[in-house]
Amino acid sequence: MAARNKKWTQGELHTPVCDILGCAHPIVLAGMGGVARSELVAAVVEAGGYGFLGMVREPPALIRTEIDRVRARTGSSFGVNLIPHATGRALLDAEIDACIAAKIPSVALFWNVYPDVVRRFRDEGIIVAYQVGSPDEAIAAEDAGANILIAQGSEAGGHVRGRESVFTLVQKVVAHAGVPVLAAGGIADGKGLAAALSLGAQGVVVGTAFMATHESFAHDYHKQRLVSARAGDTVLTDSFHINWPRGAMVRVIANSVTRGEAGDPFSGPTKTIGEEEGRPIYLFSTDSPLRSMTGDFAAMALYAGESVEGVTNIVPAGERLRTMLEEAQALLRPR
């Protein structure tokens, strides 16, 4: 039977998936690599939402440190985002060990379904949310043991799995899913949250809107570009590929790379355009500008979803979450 959500607590927008995750409201911070660090995760969960630390290809020591930092700020539940397909197996196993040892409540996984990874977490009692881009992938993730499905539409910023509009995909996934479904991609306000709930999703996963907050670990340059960008300024491209399997599409704000002004992304010598604590940042890499980086930010991957048009200022994460809730409540309130 499909896990449809036709009822929710009108006054609080509390859906069944909130009980699974241990949060008050069905707004989830996307586990954006590099951006969703402890300060942002703690701010979102303290406001009643749920958050995933973006720990893609990060050393286990950093994962442990960031988990400890969130716990020092809040007693609320949160999770960790990992991407098995973009991580070497030895590092992935070490990341998994770190999450299990820290007794993290949940993990979010993305990009191809790895049943062995799902099983390893489920065997430890850890909730698994799997982000998918098609109905077939949703079925595979649920069959592997995922507790929650995240249906990602093509409007999403960053790495994009889906090729359909988010609400079209949500309806297809909800129709067959036996677990709760969250909507992701192009959602930054209460209108998007209300629409997702009305179509049977039990909540939303938000990236771009939370990147443009005080607590985000994104560099101020990136945040300001989000504020000034419009939906038409974003493009899907595979030009930013270093550190990821070739052919993986990302949605970014158009720049010299996407316009072809930086040369062929797949040939020629490697060029360093920045640095992060001694680590070189290469032209055409998937690295986005972070607080800890220096370099040519304009040539880096400026991730942004189509929802960027609705992001007109930089505010505290808790304020952004509360505004979304208030807008959705007003729209869903019985007339």
Main attributes of the structure:
335 residues; alpha/beta; TIM Barrel; 8-stranded parallel β-barrel; 3-stranded antiparallel beta sheet; 11 helices; 17% strand; globular
Task: Write structural notes for this entry.
- There is one protein chain.
- The protein is α/β, with parallel strands linked by helices and 335 residues long.
- It has 2 domains: 16-216 and 311-332, Alpha-Beta Barrel (TIM Barrel), CATH 3.20.20.70; 220-308, no CATH class.
- Helix content is 33%, strand content 17%.
- It contains 11 helices and 14 strands.
- It has helices at 16-21, 38-46, 60-73, 89-101, 115-123, 135-144, 166-176, 190-198, 208-211, 220-228, 317-332, and strands at residues 27-29, 50-54, 79-82, 106-110, 127-132, 148-152, 158-159, 181-184, 204-206, 234-237, 250-253, 272-276, 279-282, 293-295.
- An 8-stranded parallel barrel has the order 1-2-3-4-5-6-8-9, surrounded by 7 helices. Strands 7-11-10 form a 3-stranded antiparallel beta sheet, with no helix packed on it.
- β3, α4 (89-101) and β4 (106-110) form a beta-alpha-beta unit.
- The longest helix has 16 residues, at 317-332.
- The chain is globular and about 55 Å long.
- It starts with 15 loop residues before the first helix and ends with a helix.
- Mean pLDDT is 94; it is low at 1-10.
Write the layout of secondary structure elements.
Elements: H1 16-21, E1 27-29, H2 38-46, E2 50-54, H3 60-73, E3 79-82, H4 89-101, E4 106-110, H5 115-123, E5 127-132, H6 135-144, E6 148-152, E7 158-159, H7 166-176, E8 181-184, H8 190-198, E9 204-206, H9 208-211, H10 220-228, E10 234-237, E11 250-253, E12 272-276, E13 279-282, E14 293-295, H11 317-332
Parallel strand pairs: 1-2, 1-9, 2-3, 3-4, 4-5, 5-6, 6-8, 8-9
Antiparallel strand pairs: 7-11, 10-11, 12-13, 12-14
Helix pairs in contact: 2-3, 3-4, 8-11
